[in-house]
Amino acid sequence: MDHLDELEAESIFILREAFAKLDKLAILWSLGKDSNVVLWLCRKAFFGHVPFPVMHVDTERKFPEMYAFRDRYAKEWNLNFIRELCPPIEATDPTLPPAGRSAARKTLGLRAAIEKHGFEGLILGIRRDEEAIRAKERYFSPRDETGQWNLKDQPPEFWNQYMTSFPEGTHVRVHPILHWTELDIWKYTKRENIPLIDLYFSKNGKRYRSLGDKDITSPIESEAADIDAVIAELETTRTPERAGRAMDHEAEDSFERLRAAGYM
Amino acid sequence: MRQDKQDARQLKIVIVGHVDHGKSTLVGRLIHETGALPEGRFEAIKAQSERRGMPFEWAFLMDAIQAERDQGITIDTTQIRFRTERRPYVIIDAPGHKEFLKNMVTGAASAEAALLLIDAHEGVQEQSRRHGYLLSLLGVRQVAVLVNKMDLVGYSADRFGQVAEEYRAYLKGLGVEPSCIIPISAREGDNMTAHSGRMPWYQGPTALQALDGFETLPRPFERPLRMPVQDVYKFDQRRIIAGRIESGSLEVGQEVIFSPSNKTARIRSIEAWQAGTPETVRAGQSVGVTLDEQIFVERGEVMSHVADAPQETNVFKARLFWLGRNALEQGARYTLKLGTLETEVTVEAIERVIDTDDLSAKAATRIERNGAGEVVLRTRRLLALDEHEENPATGRFVLVENHMPVGGGIVSMEGYPDQRHLVTVRSTNITAVGHAVTREARTARNGHKGGVLWFTGLSGAGKSTLALALERELFAKGYLVYVLDGDNVRGGLNKDLGFGPEARAENIRRIGEVAALFADAGFLVISSFISPYRADRERAKEAAGAAFHEIYVKASLEACEDRDPKGLYRRARQGEIAEFTGISSPYEPPEAAELVVPTDELPVEECLGMLMRYVGERFQNTR
Fold this sequence. Notes:
The structure holds two protein chains of two kinds. Chain A is an alpha/beta fold. Chain A has seven helices and eight strands; from the N terminus they run αβαβαβαβββαββαα. Chain A has two domains: about 5-180 and about 250-260, 3-Layer(aba) Sandwich (Rossmann fold), CATH 3.40.50; about 185-250, no CATH class. Chain A has helices at about 5-20, 35-45, 65-75, 100-115, 180-190, 225-235, 255-260; strands at about 25-30, 55-60, 80-85, 120-125, 140-145, 170-175, 205, 220. Chain A has a six-stranded mixed sheet, sandwiched between helices. Chain A has a two-stranded antiparallel sheet with strand order 7-8. In chain A, helix 2 (about 35-45) links the parallel strand 1 and strand 2 (about 55-60). The radius of gyration of chain A is 18 Å and the shape is globular. Chain B is about 25% helix and about 30% strand. In chain B, helix 12 runs parallel beside helix 13 (about 535-545). The two termini of chain B are about 50 Å apart. The model of chain B is unreliable at about 1-5, about 65-75 and about 425-435 (pLDDT under 50). At the A-B interface, helix 1 and helix 2 of A face strand 2, helix 4, strand 7, strand 8 and strand 22 of B. Chain A: Keywords: ATP-binding, Nucleotide-binding, Nucleotidyltransferase, Transferase. Chain A: Its EC number is 2.7.7.4. Chain A: Belongs to the PAPS reductase family. CysD subfamily.
């Protein structure tokens, strides 16, 4: 087994634990490279099937390429696809900085969707290396009724045993690729030939390294026009992945506040 | 596996030690020295420190969270990556504060090697020892000790020698031999990547060399096959048994056994999606298989080869560490998670509590939060497991209380036999006659025989008091025990019966039959009824056979009438109650009771003691 095989085996184990232990499970599909890998891993774990709903919480501000990608693969991969909308910006916490408010729409949309469908578990494609606060996450991360994440008192996880039962009213975020890096994602995407939105590849000297809403995501300077070039670029870069995500950088603690309130 | 730089396997390391002994500083230094910092991070933290009017701290690199900086302690494990010439690393900055031991465990349990930091000035502290102890319990065998803050002790070789010797002796008590003990200053950069001119007396490995000296652990391919079943899928026409292979390897066509149901079948296929049709799979892989026979298999069972199957037992010893808010108590029940199996478990005994300061052991009835000890655990159902030494993945478990994982332990089967032979019914084509589960098997599982303790005696003799006290005591010791009395029988089973002589006889007959069934099911039944007629008691004895024990709860009529707890004798004397035993209808005392408990001569405690001894002698399983 090489490094990617080990990562894959671990993620499949986690997905199967979630499916065995959680009653109403869904996967959050953001259409980006990470959640595409998670979907792929689901099909590996469940032998070609995705045995739970695949939900897109839509801000309606994504790039057109993202919507085209979504509509195509929801059909092609035979997904049980659900689309939920986010509330207007006015519904968010006015004390957050502007891009933070934009990101907070997604949190509210997500919370409403969880309530509407009564999901007990939600699978998300976040990774520890993306961001310092995500680095603190657990594979199985419980949230209380209001979606709050209690960062300071998390359940221990060891010996492949996770917290898989919960008091009434709790839901759990499951993070099967928490231990992967950005580079792992790209190498795996290449090896498995997983489809990808081509905004990730350079056009006119710019490409998107991370995909979010149009208004709060900026492209980076890059000549990497295909997957090999992206991998080569990432092997030498020292710029953080989410540098183009405005909401992470407005204030020292803005991302932490978003996360505590239920942001992905 | 290729061993060149790019493809060398990543090593997971953990950094532990007492609070403030410099873990975050070490990590900050390491990632800076190896060039792993994201661009701009060093500058951002420098600027942040200046804004706060503080000197630059390497630790700030790690402490990305507001709350952490305010409290000044690292709360949780964070994974940070860097790379040396030899290979990539992922480091887990484990916290040192006592309250956060569960986070240290979370980090260290997945580590292949550890750096343990000790402050040269403060010396070996409580957490230095506790973390060392936990590393050994968690199975982290590769440990390098870094004696940090040498700058604060004037780079003294003597001071280093003292600390190193003290800690080496402690680790020796755990059977752990550190790969090296290195004097460093993480803040000043001494002996981190190169030998420091300030400690010419030290010529051993640097911190980075110590890291590169560790080995990535080989997968346990050579151990017996173990695959805990995670699930059985039927998404299409295939019935796939899914799980991860924890040890050994598996080939198509091999015969396998599922424990503890002990069913066997052959592997028809190894299933995969977008990965061909493998013929062989090995430890570490998440797989799916189909079988040649449609046997019923479920989550929690362990798949192995027939020849080297895991042990089966419902009782075992364990060394465990405890993280729960409430102490672990003797007699308490928890949920046990072992592999993919979950079941209720009782702490039958706490054999000793370990003081991690000096590794001394003492007797106790509880293990406090962040403590460690040795216990005997008993489950209701049979478990498939291994001695931890022989197969760590199937020889360790987690305890859960109120949904929350609260402890972990490793299995020892020392002194307990494998129960596999007691329950194995290997042939699948024999029609069952009688019970498939024998009485012996139930006795072995429960740790005691089933039986009926038939209490008889006058009203007010103390039957109920003793029955309920005995039930409580036996239950605490892990017995399957249940009291049948007027309250739970008259309300349902015998609701249709009145209090005339025929109805009373029928009442006792039914109770006798029910008690016999309970006894057959492995329970110790305590029936608590006056049951005044010998003939009625004889019938009950016939129903239960040899399992029937007549217990005469003896008190004179005068004594009972004196006590008269419910005022019944008074009302009977006044003629308000017809046919009252001892007053207006007879009580026939037993002629040959197995035990006579004279409640009018002995205090309750002594009566209870008599009963407990009797039960211990007659019902405890003596293999």
